């Protein structure tokens, strides 16, 4: 998990994240990671349109968002 977060910071990748919130609900977020700490990380949340802090332990899944190029032939 940490490797994916650090790679996202290094290459500027956008990630889809499944996250377990403090109240026990599960949310899906599209994020751009800004900084990775020991137990948490800062990211810009595209859903809330603001910077948020997430606990690494509560991340259920991370998947890089791949934008496919479209060409007209």
Give the helices and strands, then pairings:
Blueprint: H1 2-11, E1 14-20, E2 26-36, E3 40-45, E4 50-55, E5 59-64
Antiparallel strand pairs: 1-2, 1-5, 2-3, 3-4
Folded structure, characterized:
With 73 residues, this protein is mostly beta strands. The chain has one domain (2-64): SH3 type barrels, CATH 2.30.30. It contains one helix and five strands. A five-stranded antiparallel sheet has the order 4-3-2-1-5. Strand 3 and strand 4 form a beta hairpin.
Overall radius of gyration: 13 Å
- Overall residue-averaged pLDDT value: 91
Number of strands: 5
Order of helices and strands: HEEEEE
Q: What structural category arises from helix and sheet content?
A: mainly beta
Q: What would you call the shape?
A: globular
- For the terminal residues, how far apart are their CA atoms? 39 Å
Give me the CATH fold name. Answer: SH3 type barrels
Low-confidence stretches: none
% residues in beta strands: over 45%
Regarding quaternary structure, how should these chains be classified? Answer: single chain
Helical amount among residues, as a percent range? 10-25%
Number of separate domains: 1
Name of the CATH first level: Mainly Beta
Biggest sheet architecture: 5 strands, antiparallel
CATH architecture descriptor text: Roll
The count of helical stretches stands at 1
């Amino acid at each position: 998990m940490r490797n994916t977060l650090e790679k996202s910071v290094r290459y500027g990748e956008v990630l889809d994240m499944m996250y377990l919130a403090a109240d026990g609900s599960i949310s899906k977020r599209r994020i751009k990671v800004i900084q990775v700490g020991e137990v948490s990380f800062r990211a810009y949340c595209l859903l809330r349109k603001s910077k948020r802090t997430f606990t690494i332990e509560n991340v259920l899944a991370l998947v890089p968002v791949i934008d496919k190029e479209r060409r007209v032939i």
